[in-house]
Amino acid sequence: MISRKSLIWATTALAGSLAFAGAASAQSTGTEATELDQVVVTGQRGPRSIDGAIVAETVAKSRASITEEYISTQAPGQTILNSINLLPGVNFTNNDAFGSSGGDLTIRGFDSARISLTQDGVPLNDTGNYAIYSNQQLDPELISRATVNLGTTDVDSPTASATGGTVNYSTRRPEQEFGVILQPSIGETGYRRFFGLVDTGAFGPWGTTAWFSASKTAYDHFIGAGGVDKTQYNARIYQPLGDNGDFLSLTANYNENRNSFIARKTLAQFNAGTAYESGNTLPSALTNINPSNTGNIRGASRFTLRDNLVLTIDPSFQYVLAHGGGTQTMSETDPQLIGNSTAAGVDLNRDGVINGATRVTLFRPNITNTHRYALTSSLIWDINDDNRLRLAYTYDNGRHRQTGQFGYIDANGKPEDPFAGRNGTPINLPDGTILRRRDRLSYAKLNQIAAEYRGNFFNDAISLDLGVRAPYFDRELTNYCYQRDTFNAYCTTQVGTPVAGTDLVTFPASSMNSSAANRYGKPRSFEKKYDAVLPNGGVTWRFADHNSVYASYAEGFSAPRTDDLYDVVDVNPEPERTKSYDLGYRYQAAGLIGSIAAWKTDYSNRIVRTFDEAAGLFLTRNVGDVTLQGFDGQLGWSPFDKFNITGSVTYTDSEVKNNLPNGVVNGVPVFIQTAGNRLVETPEWQYGMRVAYSVGPFDLGLQGKYVGERFSNDINTEVAPDYTTFDLDVRYNLASLGNGGSYIQFNVINLFDEEYLADISTSTTGSASYQLGAPRTAMVTLRASF
């Protein structure tokens, strides 16, 4: 039987290191090596974790983690971002019960584009807009631990965007013995999933180990038409080099997701009680799709150069091909189709006749294709038993191709190809081009150096961490089309009419250019460079057995996103900057782990995208300064054997300091009244709690999350109501089947069928649109482990 009983650290420093090593998680191999030895130095006695839902942290910063013990209790196939939802400071809103339709993450008031997500230290945020795609993450059965840095980064974090913290999860290592896991799941709304894994065990003359896995998931949406069809393949090979912790490792992941979006709702529909009654119609579900092909190869290595000198090197490659659907209805004589040619138009319906009265709906997605190469490395020098110096270098180069080739829709209302004209049949135009909605090429290049010192003083009563990282970020951008505003482009060979006194042009009205008064920036190539020096430091004082306090300071930096720079004219928004302060207390003893932290973040140059009503454009604006502050904490208690209680609390106070610029009318600057308002999507209060109990062959878990009211527009006139959801997990362990790791597990999401609004698509001054929270959903899983 797999027990949830808390593990006890060994009393010796060496044994403590071995007990912790299997659960180590960090931003990179270098950080992992550094922090593992930190446990050896402190040699603290106490539980490693309680129920896997709370972990005894030792670093001098606010951090929270979960382990595979807890992750395995959650819904099979669930995104790892939903599994960290009970941690302090974190709020994840899922788009469905199973995790493969997307969702949204916030930490301490920062949205997902301002949070760094890494897998084994490899950056996963989009290179252009820094978005996190929760439905493309690793199968949870392969994750050994997930760690959240609240408001700070690690010294070698490979990011130019993290002002709000980091999330990192670590892939399991191969087992030393041969083993097979077969895991089918079924559930409501047609949920079907199968996961399989083979561990090779140690083989060959050098004790090489490896595993290979595959999963297949399919289900219908809980509202309206459409659903999810997802396939994932993973593999890892691990080669130890001697017996001192050195190794070589190579891990591969490929994920193919085919899903349609779930229709969003308004607050008025929700309040009227009609939101759950209707959803996608079948035609819109077929064209409003979100296909993605993603994959990565992750290398990791550690080499002991001398007794006190260690080198780590982690290279990686990522591939992304994805889009978010969309359609466009066009006349066969639309000016954009004709371009600079003398043709009458294009036969869009392929009937052999060009007719201006014929209007045809075409598939028109925004497609993104990324090739990304990265390297994170560290040189760690143990000066003596109490002092360590670390130098780190990060390289990250992403080729980001944004296109929008139109494609055809078949007689059943389904795109002929999920990637439209890119992979299927394009719309060829008489001027020799193809019909497209945008056409951009950008390179995002990060070079970062970092240094860190760690020291222990007064018989390890005080630990000091001092670090600095210096990112140098370069964006090379080319726009092959005319640009109307932050989001909308116009791709044509038409000759525009110059606008006097500007570098802009106008075009005759068309289906994608609704007014001849629209002004467009010309195609162009340009480069933007950003750099920063970001100090961070922390100190921990272990003033009594089981008790410690810590204080930390860290600066953050986020370079402007690609869409912030592709504008009508040349724009140069300043990078966002943060200064974060934390003061925390921890108690860690057998059967009891607790922590609480008070924090404050000074946030400057916050960039938002707003609709300029006077100009009729979506533009990038600098809202200026924001102050965030609050406290968060968590507690884990095991009052007796096989019974665990864990909980978290978060209070977040946010204040926007300035009014939002909104253009100029008759020579007078116009502002949107935002000063004194709270940030959107930021609840003041959050609570999380879990109770777990094992009795005989049964493991029982009940967990809940309360999320307070959230403003959904910048002027704070629309509020999403608060909500509370509960999830249930029940496991029956099958000790007689296989190797003792087999079980039947029953999960219920949203046990009491709470109706609530989850993800918010926020607005500046108007009404927002919302993703509905999934209703009560049940599933059952059989895990056969041999």
From TrEMBL:
Record domain TonB-dependent receptor plug: where: 58-159
Gene3D superfamilies: TonB-dependent receptor, beta-barrel domain (2.40.170.20), TonB-dependent receptor, plug domain (2.170.130.10)
PROSITE patterns: TONB_DEPENDENT_REC_2, TONB_DEPENDENT_REC_3
Protein's membrane topology: Multi-pass membrane protein
Signal peptide: 1-26
Pfam families cross-referenced by the UniProt entry: Plug, TonB_dep_Rec_b-barrel
Motif interval(s): TonB C-terminal box: 769-786
Cellular localization per UniProt: Cell outer membrane
Residues covered by the TonB-dependent receptor-like beta-barrel domain: 236-751
Keywords: Cell outer membrane, Ion transport, Iron, Iron transport, Membrane, Receptor, Signal, TonB box, Transmembrane, Transmembrane beta strand, Transport
Top-rank taxon, per record: Bacteria
Annotated PANTHER family: CATECHOLATE SIDEROPHORE RECEPTOR FIU (PTHR32552:SF89), FERRICHROME IRON RECEPTOR-RELATED (PTHR32552)
Family the entry assigns: Belongs to the TonB-dependent receptor family.
The protein's name: TonB-dependent receptor
Organismal lineage: Bacteria, Pseudomonadati, Pseudomonadota, Alphaproteobacteria, Caulobacterales
